[in-house]
Amino acid sequence: MDIKTINEMIQRESAFVDTLTAEVGKTIVGQKYMVERLLIGLLCNGHILLEGVPGLAKTLTIKSLAAAIRAKFQRIQFTPDLLPADLIGTMMYNQKEGTFFTRRGPIFANFILADEINRAPAKVQSALLEAMQERQITIGEETFPLEEPFLVLATQNPIEQEGTYPLPEAQVDRFMLKVRIGYPSREEELLIMRQNVLGENKDLKPVVSPKEILAARNVVRQVYMDEKIERYILDIVFATRQPAEFKLDKIAPMISYGASPRATINLALASKAHAFIKRRGYVIPEDVRAISLDVLRHRVAVTYEAEAEEITPEHIVQEILNHIEVP
Amino acid sequence: MQMTDSRIQMTDGRIQMAVCRRQMRVARLTLVAVLILLVAVEAGAQEPQLRASVDSSEYKIGEWVWVRVTAEVPSGISSLVPAVKDSLGSFELLSVDEVPDGKAERVWNFKLIAFDSGTVFVPPIPFSYTVAGDTVQRQAVTNMVFLTIHGVSVDPQGELKDIKPPLDAPWKFEDFLPYLIALVLLALAVWAYRYYQKKKRERELAYVPPKPVIPPATVALAALRALEDKKLWQQGKVKEYYSEATEIIRRFLEDQYRILALESTSDEIMQQLKPVPEAQSLLKQFRSFLTTADLVKFAKYAPTPDEHEAELRWAYEIVRTMAPRPEQQPDGMEETAEEAVDVR
């Protein structure tokens, strides 16, 4: 397919992005960054780990997105006493008929907000992460495929660590993006304050159907990515593994382990989705740069020495991005 | 008669037997006595004989009293050590040293000191010892030694005198040693510093100034001319042509304005150019230059020959406009941008 055709197709298929963003913007002030990342996750069929202090409209954003897409939304508060059956469902006994029947858990929805995922023990986390990976649930002897689109947004509270079960590195890698949400700007917060004080409840209308999202996923894969961009992505990922080869000797002792091949795949996919959202039929280095931090921050681990110096994975990724030549 | 004789013979036999029995009893008793005597002698022989002596019987108060203890140690004694702590009667024990004398006797020197005047005695000094094949600790003591300790004679009629200051200990080599080492180290440090300064001066004298830096504009213009001469787009190598053109401009920005242009995207470059005064009139052209190059490089865009030429024209204009004027040229720059443009 030539680039002109791709561009035209992208222009046509990505039209819903503006409508969707505008609809979500009716209830959400600011948080454009988060909404954009949610769309990228949705378009790439990837899940997102959100990190931010409470009260940043995480729940409201995903709820609004679900409402604007006409999708089913479920919020699950993870607690230490949560059981896998509370999440996926269980077999129940019908005394009247003398038979067992399946009661489906809250995971059977399009959009799942796994709130404070690190508060639940490992077995519940595993149950969720398995469902995220397999996109199907087995209860008893029956297997149920999860309805598409299926997007899990897990949140982690970065300020409280007591009584939590931090996600193991292998599990974190299953999240396509790890998005760090910051506070809104002064002007945005003024609007938030006014909106909430007046108590205006704006009902969101569904502007996109799940079918359109699924169709857009196929279009995203058609976005053209030049070999130069592919090599640029590889340079970034390889620099996290062998920094010395990229003349980044000073950060070499700070990296405990680098990004996995899954990071390469996700960085390429997310860059395509970013180009799609920007309504372009081709990927440019800006797309890669824009999404790199979210794809790599949970896939690069720093050493204890670096932690002692308050060096975070973000610092490492930023240093790599500042050092690798852009094609 | 025969009977009488036989009786006499019988009586004689009995007497002889009685004499024999008596002799045997005496021999047995003698043997027991000898054995008892031997055991007693042996037991007495196991105890060490200790003798304490002094060189003089008169000492001044506070003067060291050397007590020499000589021990005759029998062969059966396995260990013999003084069993004293820090004092002996009215004496303080300062030290105990065994003196090797190479003889069968063992000798210890006890250094004592007393602060009471009068006739005093050094009490028996206890020693612990063990006998070979026995773990029991036994004790032997020396004899007592009588001494006279004289106090300081005070003239009650004489005038009062101040307390004398402590006497300075005589200087020994060990006292000088730390100062000597410090002096040697200081001398070494001074020598090393002078040596370093000398070498530095030598290096400075041998320093060859680097070649004058060619201004980034000159380098960029030369590179653009080389790119033009390569005729890449004419040969169908459009992507290479645009890649090289943008790289020349990015390198120029990096060298001229210390902007991280090679590591920045087009948008980031535009952001970084905003505060640069020389770039203000060129921002639109810059955007077009970078966008066209991005389209060719990443979106398979095929520009027309006019666009190819326009791209290079923009590149020349960017360099010429942004090159510093002669008065802005930093020292050491070999050629000014104006000269570089003239060359072209």
Short structural description:
Chain A has 327 residues and is of the alpha/beta class. Helices cover 47% and strands 15% of the residues of chain A.
Descriptive account of the structure:
The complex is a heterodimer of chains A (327) and B (344). Chain A folds into two domains: 210 residues, Rossmann fold (3-Layer(aba) Sandwich), CATH 3.40.50; 101 residues, Helicase, Ruva Protein, domain 3. Chain A is α/β, with parallel strands linked by helices. A five-stranded parallel sheet of chain A has the order 2-5-8-1-9. The model of chain A has no long low-confidence stretch (mean pLDDT 86). In chain A, helix 10 packs across helix 11. Chain A has 14 helices and eleven strands. Chain B has 344 residues and is an alpha+beta fold. Among the domains of chain B are: 102 residues, Immunoglobulin-like; 128 residues, no CATH class. In chain B, 47% of the residues lie in helices and 19% in strands. Chain B contains eight helices and eleven strands. In chain B, strand 6 and strand 7 form a beta hairpin. Chain B is elongated. In chain B, 18% of the residues are buried. Classes of the chains: A alpha/beta (327), B alpha+beta (344). At the A-B interface, helix 12 and helix 14 of A face helix 5 and helix 6 of B.
Q: What distance separates the N and C termini of chain A?
A: 23 Å
Cα radius of gyration of chain A in angstroms? 21 Å
Q: How would you name the CATH homologous superfamily of the largest domain in chain A?
A: P-loop containing nucleotide triphosphate hydrolases
Q: So how many helices of chain A? A: 14
Number of domains of chain A: 2
Total of helices of chain B: 8
